Amino acid sequence: MSRRPRIVALADSLALPRDEKGEVLRWEETWPYLLAEQLAGVDVINCGARARSSDQLLGDALYEHVALKRPDVVVVQVGIVDCSPRVFTKLEKRLLGLPVVPAPLRQRIIAHRAARRAEITRRDPLGRVHTPPADYARDVARFAQEAGPLGARVVFLPVLSWPARMELKSPGHGGNVRLYNDLLRTAAREQGARFLEPEALVPEAELERAFMADGYHLSAHGSRRVAEHLAPELRSVLSA
After folding, report:
1. DSSP states of 101-124
2. Using CA atoms, how far apart are residues 101 and 194, in angstroms rounded to an integer?
3. What is the average per-residue pLDDT within 105-133?
4. What is the CATH number of domain 6-85+133-239?
5. Residues spanned by CATH 3.40.50.1110 within the chain?
6. Whole-angstrom distance, CA of residue 55 vs CA of residue 172
7. What gap in Å lies between CA 177 and CA 187, rounded to an integer?
8. What is the pLDDT of residue 179?
9. Mean pLDDT of the chain, nearest integer
10. In angstroms, rounded to a whole number, what is the distance separating the alpha carbons of residues 10 and 28?
11. Secondary structure of residue 10 in the 3-state scheme
């Protein structure tokens, strides 16, 4: 029995509704929802997950969202969680969360680090990421390799953010984003996937309108821009 073409949006929180200190992005304003409105006769399934990182594309996620849902195309949007410089390394965060650390002490440490965020991230922005560059490159390449035999073509969205805002609180963020987009671009080329350039999705002149005040979650305008640019790309992929 024939079925409608199917697209899975395998993304992080940039594809989900959000209330960010009063800035609200509703479900019907997310880019997968808007994409479905623009692609008549195509099912678009929003499988976004908050804080999704590149290693979470594999294993159970690959099985559930690709093997079981059987999409014709998977649109992947991960990277901001992976590449943003952090005030705590993975090890530090794990130690801080141990039950032996008293809650008042934990809160004082967090507040102290938060106040020194710019100083800490400026010192070594690439050394304070969630996912090292080599691991990120491996994860996205492996996802494309494994999705293909399952019948899904892969379209990678770039890591998106508002560099001017992000650099104020996390110096080095912009350089990390450029590096991880280079890795994503290379993986797409080598694995026969598509990569959409960040400037095409969100032009520099529209950055302030495209993001919430936190600098990386999409506003309603940004989500609409992503959907409008992505729709013709996906029509091309589906018709190929």
Report:
1. S-HHHHHHHHHHHHHTHHHHHHH-
2. 46
3. 90
4. 3.40.50.1110
5. 6-85+133-239
6. 23
7. 15
8. 98
9. 94
10. 17
11. strand
